[in-house]
Design a protein that fits this description.
Blueprint lengths: L8 E7 L1 H4 L8 H16 L2 E7 L2 H9 L8 H24 L5 E6 L1 H5 L1 H16 L3 E6 L13 H11 L4 E6 L20 E2 L4 H6 L12 H14 L3 E5 L5 H6 L5 E4 L10 H8 L5 E5 L1 H10 L3 E2 L3 E6 L6 E5 L5 E6 L4 H7 L4 H6 L10 E3 L4 E3 L2
Parallel strand pairs: 1-2, 1-5, 2-4, 3-4, 5-7, 6-8, 9-12
Antiparallel strand pairs: 7-8, 9-11, 10-14, 12-13, 13-15
Length: about 375
């Protein structure tokens, strides 16, 4: 039975395939039962949880009796179609034991690249939480293709956290958290318990995917944390099978790596969050130190005079990454000019740009307006 419930703190819990499945890549029903009990406990503590799950493909392969994960897209999408039903049923049955109603929310990049659809998704999440429902979110693998898929559920979870204006996101993984190096290869690797700023060194310490049943790795988790920190949402990466991990993380106890979210000097609007996560970047604009300082320290717009080089091919209004000259991405925004035009302007002075009939419109107008720019540091 559902009804309007009092608003509480909002929590996103992302569960990776390797945590949700057994070594044979089948659903771990005992884990789901324990997860449901933890979700019930955090609800009692005043949280409104949303679950972002993986493993639809793995569940489909289990149901079909396919031992080895295929590599072609039609087979993966067909397996997801079979597995999504099994996965949704497994969640519904486990959570029903705790008196919790669940719903299924399937998303693709195409659903969020359109701002109107993004806002409708936000409103739907809000109503589900108002009704006391626990949404179970997954990528719509049945229809996703390489051009529109999120590629990993860490990004999808970060999007969900921004959609609901979460107070905390917890990623349940097959590793304790972020290490200084790959602990499987380096015996001296140590757990990083707290991250206050994501720089090039932190990104470099994140390795690739560690499981045959998942698509994400530590790097995707760190990139998700980078956006969440900009949004003021703390994130925790923890070992998913640790006792009471969700309950302890929600209570503020140290259970892995905490990516802290200090107060931001610049306003992070819903539109900026949509820019950061709602669409994939089409290219990269590299800027000089003066431009970076103007963006990060003074909240300015990016001007063409600060652009030093352009990577990729993008058009007017496409989403692009903004990097310093070392290649470190520190911002993302909507471009007001295409890559061809910016390549011509790169490295020129304002006077040179203004004197060129083709480039003159870029002399005074922003390449990326500050209202459509998200800073990651």
């Amino acid at each position: 039975m559902t009804g309007e419930v009092a608003a509480g703190r909002r929590l996103v819990v992302k569960i990776g395939s390797s945590t949700l499945t057994t070594s044979e890549s089948s659903i771990d029903y005992a884990f789901l039962d324990d997860l449901a009990a933890q979700v019930a406990a955090v609800r009692e503590a005043g949280w409104q949880p949303v679950i972002v799950t993986s493993a639809a493909i793995a569940c489909g392969l289990e149901a079909l009796g396919v031992a080895k994960r295929p590599t072609d897209m039609p087979s993966l999408q067909a397996a997801a179609s079979v597995g999504q039903s099994a996965l949704a049923t497994a969640y519904a049955e486990a959570f029903a034991k705790q008196g919790i109603v669940t719903s299924t929310v399937l998303l693709t990049r195409r659903d969020t690249a359109d701002r109107t659809a993004y806002l409708h998704a936000r409103d739907t999440f809000g109503k589900l939480l108002d009704w006391g429902v626990v949404p179970i979110v997954n990528e719509n693998d049945t229809v996703s293709v390489e051009q529109i898929r999120f590629g990993d559920n860490d990004t999808l979870a970060a999007l969900a956290a921004c959609l609901i204006d979460a107070d905390l996101m917890v990623i349940l993984s097959d590793i304790d958290g972020l290490y200084t190096a790959n602990p499987a290869r380096d015996p001296d690797a140590r757990l990083v318990e707290r991250v206050d700023r994501i720089d090039g060194a932190i990104l470099a310490s994140a390795g690739g995917a560690g499981s045959s049943v998942g698509s994400g790795g530590m790097q995707t988790k760190v990139k998700a944390a980078r956006v969440l920190m900009a949004a003021g949402i703390p994130m925790v990466i923890a070992y998913g099978r640790r006792l009471n991990v969700v309950v302890d993380a929600a209570a503020g106890k140290g259970v892995g790596t905490l990516f802290a979210a200090p107060e931001r000097p610049h306003e992070i609007t819903p539109r900026k969050l949509w820019i950061a996560l709602g669409d994939s970047a089409r290219g990269t604009v590299k800027v000089d130190e003066g431009a970076k300082n103007a963006l990060v320290e003074h909240g300015k717009s990016l001007l063409a005079v600060g652009v030093r080089s352009v990577e990729g091919s993008f058009g007017l209004d496409d989403i692009v990454d903004v990097a310093d000259f070392s290649g470190h991405v520190f911002a993302r925004g909507r471009a007001s000019a295409g890559s061809d035009l910016l390549e011509l302007a790169a490295g020129r002075t304002r006077e040179e740009i203004a004197a060129n009939a083709i480039l003159a419109p870029l002399a005074d107008g922003p390449v990326i307006h500050r209202d459509e720019l998200v800073l990651f540091e």
